[in-house]
Amino acid sequence: ATITALNQEKEKKGSTGINRTVSNKLLVETVAPFRGLRLFLYAAFASGAFVGGLITLSGVAAAMNGLRDDVDMNTEYLNLAIDFGAVAFFGVCAKFDLDKDAELTAAVEAKVERKKANKKITASMREREQLMKKLNVDVKVSQDGGTRVAPLGVMQENAKQHVILVAGPGRAIRDALRGAQLNKVNFAMTNILVVPYETGVDAAERAAKPDGGGFGDSRPTYETQPYVAEPVGEGWEEFVKAELDTAAEQAGDKVFEEGIALVVANDGKVLRRGVGKVPWRQMVDELEEAVTGEEKEKANPLLDFIE
Q1: Per-residue pLDDT at 52
Q2: Which of 25, 96, 104, 244 has the highest Cβ tally under 10 A?
Q3: Other Cβ atoms within 10 Å of 134 Cβ, number
Q4: Rounded CA gap, 151 and 131, in Å?
Q5: In this predicted model, what pLDDT tens digit does every residue of 168-190 receive, in sequence order?
Q6: Rg (Cα) of the chain, in Å, rounded?
């Protein structure tokens, strides 16, 4: 019970040790620093007008009861309207400011919560980046179709391979691999390995997939390119599901239909996470920039469109 109470108290405080409610209030004050002053002035002016109105009202009441005969009723009625009109005006101004304060407070709290959530998402992404290095791929190592199974981390560290993971339904994978085939020369020059992972396919279907080595089981050429590595072994399904779920939280459920792409440099750093159509030329340029540190000339937009 004591540990739970300590955790709850820690949750209420930010990284600075200040109570979260107080911290949010301070943020609101920095965004609208003069709201408190305005509310004070509204209250002061409204109070003065209200007191003036009461004094004027007492004079009118005295005149109506015959206790005073030096009162100009038309003037007093005008003063009453001005006084109580001012009270109403400052009250409306205060209400407007308080509503804006409530909206701003809600927006600040929502932003703080989003920041907390993003920190958790970022932390989970970093964990998955380390996990990704342990996932196995079946890589082509010879011209006659010979393959070798190796962890991605080994391919990145020893073979200096960059990795572009494409995950999604069959249609999205086919479209991505067709686009990749147009850039196979760039892949060879920049040492890029493309790993396609088709969702909605169980282990048995994946194992029964033709390897292109026999009669009647030929595969499309875009699937058998030397830069394409097949994901094998355990862990891929959980990894891809976690990536899709994270992407869905930010981009909506369309990611399950359009697929996602991860660009990972050979040092293990994820350079890009994207949804939908894979911009191969841009990804290749980003990988080259990450390695050389030199910004490349942007690709022709027409060629990107053709991809």
Answers
A1: 93
A2: 244
A3: 14
A4: 10
A5: 999 999 999 988 888 776 666 66
A6: 34
Q: How far apart are CA 196 and CA 234, in angstroms?
A: 15
Q: Residue 212, SS3?
A: coil
Structure tokens at 18: 């200040």
pTM of the full predicted structure?
0.64
Among 276, 38, 242, CA closest to 173: 276
DSSP characters for 260-301?
EEEEE-TTS-EEEEEESS--HHHHHHHHHHHHH--PPPPPPH
How far are the Cα atoms of 69, 73, 85, 182 from residue 58, in angstroms, in the given order? 14, 12, 17, 90
Q: CA 101, CA 39: separation in Å to the nearest integer?
A: 11
pLDDT digits (tens, 9 = 90+) for 94-136: 999 999 988 888 888 888 888 888 788 888 888 888 889 999 9
C-alpha separations of 165 from 92, 104, 132, 255, 281 in Å: 58, 41, 10, 14, 15
Q: Give the CA dihedral 211, 166, 306, 284, nearest 10 degrees.
A: -110
Alpha helix (H) residue ranges in the chain: 2-12, 20-31, 35-64, 73-132, 152-157, 170-181, 184-190, 203-207, 236-251, 255-258, 280-292, 301-306
pLDDT of residue 84 exceeding 90, the answer is yes
End-to-end CA distance of the chain: 59
Sign, Cα dihedral of 147, 153, 159, 160: positive
Q: Is 168 left (phi over 0), alpha (psi -120 to 50) or beta?
A: left
Residue type, 63: A
Q: Which tokens go with 64?
A: 């109506």
